[in-house]
Amino acid sequence: MRKANSFLSVLVLFLTPVLAFGQGFLVDDRHDVSSRMPRPIWPHPPTPRPTPRPAPPQSYKIRELTTNVNLVDQIAKVQVSQTFVNTGSVQMEVSFIFPLPYDGAVDRLTFLLDGKEYDAKLLDADEARRIYEGYIRRNQDPALLEWIGTGMFKTSVFPVPPGAERTVTLRYSQICRKTGGLTELMFPLSTAKYTSHPVEKYSLNINIQSQSPIKNVYSPTHAIEIKRPGDKNAVVSFSRTNEVPGSDFRLLYDVGSDAVGASALSYRPDVGDDGYFMLLISPEIKKQADQVAKKNVVFVVDRSGSMSGKKIEQAKLALKFVLNNLREGDLFNVVAYDSVVESFRPEMQRYNDENRQAALGFAEGLFAGGSTNIDGALHVALSQLSDDTRPNYVVFLTDGIPTVGVMNETQIVTNAKSLNKLRARVFSLGVGYDVNSRLLDKLARSCFGQSEYVRPNEDIEDRVSKLYNRIGAPTLTNVTIKLDVEGASIEQGPVVNRVYPRDAYDLFAGDQLVVVGRYKKSGAGKVTIEGTVDQQKQTFHFPAQLVEKSNDESMAFIEKLWAMRRVGEIIDEVDLHGKNKELIDELVALSKKHGILTPYTSFLADETIPFRNLAETNRRADVALDALSAAPSGAGGFSQRAEKGNLQRAAQSQSSGGGGLGANFSKYKSADSDKEVVVQTIQNVGRKTFFLRKNRWTDSSLTEEQEKKTQKVQRFSQDYFDLITKHGKDAAKYLALEGNVAFELGGQTYELVD
After folding, report:
1. Using 50, 70 and 90 to split pLDDT, how confident is the model at 188?
2. What is the pTM of this model?
3. 749 backbone dihedrals φ, ψ, rounded to 5°
4. Cα–Cα distances in Å, from 513 out to 19, 265, 651?
């Protein structure tokens, strides 16, 4: 084998603060060859944008990336397999390199190329940095900056002819770190963005096993699928096709023996401002049938003429799913409505096999036809609920607007609220673009539930079954959460504020509650959770530590998640109660700071608009918000309220772990349609948001006064690399941006220039 002086494939094992796997990318480090990292081809390149450099003859794509992890009591045993394809015109001579974690070496590492084992050489951090820095200087490519500062393993060289592919496999084990009482895994998935085409298929599967019951399993970055075969086992999966990974993957989980598990995380970047906290709360995964709270459920299904065809068939299948998954002891009924409202039975029925079969027959006899009497259907459903000793749920499905009976949306909501004397949770499902989405949102907010929206191409049965699976087994109802901090006095006011979600909660078996908020006072604290099961109040206590000052950005996702939910709440306030100056000002400020675009702040993507001009930006937001009040129904109204709900219930700090080609760019749903728009003039990097203005990426937090004291730094100069030495990875992620970049770091403003 030849020495590794040709191509480097970098497998990152650590970013912050511990990693369980990484994936690689190829670079050419020959002194006589200039080869920048490949980038995916943008279908609609932004105009203008920093001038892209020409693609080199050496190029590759990542065809497939698969990772499997067995995680047993903090020990991760990992296998990652990655297939590269040489899409260039010349043969590549490559070696495979990956950095070491900051806090420890990988144990029992095995490297295979197309199934054949190869040796790997350990390099210390100084030698690794020399290799990285030499490539960056030579190829004028900042792509490897964020991995400077760690040691690495390096393999021998192997060839990849044009059009050929190679599969590399890595196996190793590693101890994962504890963070705030949670075990953490991190996967630098975003390194796969260096590929000439989107990754055709990438997936990860994590099997978690523990000697103690597993409680919360949470990813702040990706919408993962979690299966819970038992209380000491959890299986996490995530997969995408034909996408460029947009962010690194993080996973947190904790264990505990209590019936309810809770963990508290906090983040405070600025001592002079309120901090951010997150609570993860999960009940026992499985309970005995006699331990699950008995409930009352009314399924209200629209059978009006607009439901004809596929929709009514899907609605019937959804109803049958609910009927087949109720539990012995539950009370239930079915209300079907068009112009006329009809009940399965005049009153709630006890769930048993005989009543189940009769209700299935009622469902089979539903046919679409007639008008839409929403007020009448809600009146019948809510009037049947009379048992306040157990939780009450109404699943309300409609695909249109009221066309008979009471048709005024305010009056319909007022009537429902008056009838809902038992605080039943009303879950509204709007099907298709013709629903009065504002009515459904008002109904859900007034009746302690939530509204969800089913697009025309989505399966009604699938959405209803997922909703019912989540609420099917209540374990603790009317939950209240209190957070106390040692030394806090009444005179100082509440310790926490702006907590979301803001309504009362129910906890369900297998579900997880994510609560975020702000805090004034730091220090040791206590979380108290109270709730009711079968009229018996239960109380649980958990420790919390609210930090005085965060020394790194490892928990910065809490701030972003809080901001997303706050934006959703602001839009909801405007939608249900009207706009005012304070709400508009805050909406624009959060959009600027965090890059959270909405249909009402999308004008920030316009490079001709000075984003620091508060009068102009707030005026534009004021005008744009008229689209919300003007669209109670239709595709625009549907899209706006579906997006509002997504923000209010956001569980990840980014809307998607994939993101297609929009790796770091902001996105929003159009107010005129239900289409996603990727904005290529605003991007999020770490805690910062950058706006493209006058052919320069500008840190949104910079003031005009700060810009006057800007220190210019020539890209790839010694000063450029000295910034990394001084600030480490805090600087590297900003220096890795293409083109001219202005940002603040450590109290100093810098501008990178070519």
Report:
1. low
2. 0.90
3. -95, 130
4. 25, 14, 9
- The rounded distance, in Å, linking the Cα atoms of 490 and 492 is 5
Tokens of 661: 């080609």
CA gap 219, 153 in Å, rounded? 28
Could you give the maximum distance between any two Cα atoms of the chain, in Å?
85
Q: Enter the tokens of residue 193.
A: 């963005």
Q: Residue 397: is it exposed, middle or buried by C-beta count within 10 angstroms (0-12/13-18/19+)? A: buried
The rounded distance, in Å, linking the Cα atoms of 289 and 308 is 38
The residues facing 631 across adjacent strands are none
Residues sharing a CB contact under 8 Å with residue 174, sequence separation 6 or more, in sequence order: 13, 18, 19, 20, 75, 76, 78, 101, 104, 106, 107
Cβ(202)–Cβ(83) under 8 Å?
no
Residues 343 and 333: beta-carbon distance below 8 Å: yes
Residue 26 is predicted with a pLDDT of 65
Distance CA 323, CA 361 (A): 11
Number of H helices, E strands in the chain: 15, 40
Judge whether residue 43 has pLDDT over 70. Answer: no
Structure tokens at 159: 């060839």
CA 426 to chain centre: 25
Q: Shortest CA distance to 688 belongs to which of 520, 553, 547?
A: 553
Judged by phi (left if over 0) then psi (alpha if -120 to 50, else beta), residue 403 lies in alpha
Residue 3 CA to residue 31 CA, distance in Å, equals: 14
Q: Write the pLDDT tens digit of every residue in 507-556.
A: 998 889 999 999 999 999 999 999 988 788 999 999 999 999 998 888 99
Strand spans (E) along 151-259: 152-155, 158-160, 165-175, 178-179, 182-187, 199-209, 214-218, 225-230, 233-243, 249-255
Please give the pLDDT value at position 19. Answer: 30
Residue with the two structure tokens 């994590």: 206
Cα atoms found within 13 Å of the Cα of residue 52, Cβ hemisphere only: 13
Q: What are phi and psi of 634, to 5 degrees?
A: 90, 175
Sign of torsion, CA 414 415 421 426?
Answer: negative
φ, ψ at 99 (rounded to 5°): -75, 160
What is the three-state SS of 518-540?
EECCCEEEEEEEEEEECCEEEEE
State pLDDT tens for residues 398-415.
999 999 999 999 999 999
| CB neighbour burial string for 690-726, b if at least 16 within 10 angstroms, e if fewer | bbbbeebbbbbebeeeeeeeeeebebbeeebbebbee
Task: Quote the DSSP letter at residue 602.
Answer: G
Q: Taking Cα atoms as reference points, which of 510, 50, 538, 555 lies closest to residue 283? A: 510
- CB neighbours of 242 closer than 8 A, spacing ≥ 6? 198, 199, 200, 201
Which of the 8 DSSP states describes residue 189?
Answer: G
Nearest CA among 196, 198, 172, 2 for reference residue 86? 196
- Three-class secondary structure of residue 495 per DSSP: coil
Does the pLDDT of residue 56 top 80, yes or no? no
Where do we find the tokens 């009482």? 181
**Domains defined for the chain, CATH in brackets:** 7-255 (2.60.40.3680), 260-289+475-546 (2.60.40.10), 294-472 (3.40.50.410), 556-701 (no CATH)
| Residue position matching structure tokens 């604290």 | 525
- Output b/e per residue, 337-349; b: 16+ Cβ within 10 A: bbeebebbeeebb
State the Cα–Cα distance between residues 541 and 70, nearest whole angstrom: 31
Q: What whole-number distance in Å separates Cα of residue 354 and Cα of residue 345? A: 13
